[in-house]
Amino acid sequence: MDTKSATEGKTYSCEECCSSFASKHYLAIHMQTHTGKKPHSCAVCGFSFRMKNSLAIHMRTHTGEKPYSCEVCASSFTRKHSLVLHMRTHTGEKPYSCEVCGSSFTQKHNLVCHMRTHTGEKPHSCKVCDSAFTTKQQVFIHMRKHTGQKKYSCEECGSSFTCKHNLVIHVRKHTGEKPYSCEMCDFAFTSKQYLAIHMRTHTEEKPYSCAVCGVSFKMKNSLVSHMRTHTGEKPYSCGVCGSSFTQKHNLAYHMRTHTGEKPHSCKVCGSSFTTKQQLVMHMRKHTGQKKYSCEECGSFFTTKHYSAIHMRTHTGEKPYSCEMCGFAFTWKQDLLRHMRTHKKLDS
Q1: Confidence grade of residue 2 (pLDDT, cut at 50, 70, 90)
Q2: 208 SS3 class
Q3: CA–CA separation, 215 vs 208, rounded Å?
Q4: Contact status, residue 107 vs residue 85, Cβ threshold 8 Å
Q5: Whole-number Å distance between alpha carbons of 29 and 51
Q6: Is the model's pTM score more than 0.70?
Q7: Mind spelling out the 3-state secondary structure of 64-128?
Q8: Which residue has the higher pLDDT, 168 or 50?
Q9: Which of 7, 106, 107, 298 has the least CB density, counted as fewest CB within 10 Å?
Q10: Which pairing describes strands 12-13 and 264-265: parallel, antiparallel, or unpaired?
Q11: Integer Cα distance of 198 and 191 in angstroms
Q12: How many C-beta atoms surround the C-beta of residue 162 within 10 A?
């Protein structure tokens, strides 16, 4: 009797979980998942493995052996699977597609993580503060906020980062490299994320909406800042005078009122300013540019603020009222001037 034909089609089942295998050898390996047995140990570091093949691959981390080479760019890998994944960077192949939005990925793992953006699933939790994340890697990076650990440092300026990806993006500020370009207006950016945010200026997409008043924003941090107008929260406080602010950059600008710092200088006349925006508005005095125009009479203004005030001459709006006599004014400074007449009467 032919031995091969006698065993053909025969399966070996696991009594623990009912999984079936084509050979007794594979069943024996599978049983180790239930028993926890790892019979193959590394003589160098003591790590144990269930399969002999896994130990052989692990040993390459000690020997430095990389037997799988890319024929296109000569990169080498310890595992054949890693080479297969790498080749997709050359071929552009993305075999794993999302059925919801059509996004494609080179690895199945990346598709699984992506699907959580649709399902909202966050299976990985922080044990310190209970924050939840879609991937295990995000938990590791988040934990550095609790430990204070910043593993990756910039050799140029010494800035430290919790993940390598953020360091790579930061270094581009020094090198000037901007690998992500907008096809619509040729603006370039240091990261794919910044390009995606920029694209919303073309698409007018505003995915972040306020649950209180319905106002929408292009960026998530803009929504976070906006919410403080409803909650009244001002988390950034000045250590000198105690003034509080809704945004960190507003505190930074305020601190210059104490230090006298004016880092933005005009190249034409040498005037200095505390903010870049002030410099931009100042430059219009030299260029004669008046960006904001009135649709009613065609008048031009250097700032949106002055344009809004001018419109009150057409609408008749007088938002500044005197609490003592009820007189209303178009300009705040007119109200302040008016208030002095009451002070004179009182005296």
Answers
A1: very low
A2: strand
A3: 8
A4: yes
A5: 7
A6: no
A7: CCCCEECCCCCCEECCHHHHHHHHHHHHCCCCEECCCCCCEECCHHHHHHHHHHHHCCCCEECCC
A8: 168
A9: 298
A10: unpaired
A11: 11
A12: 19
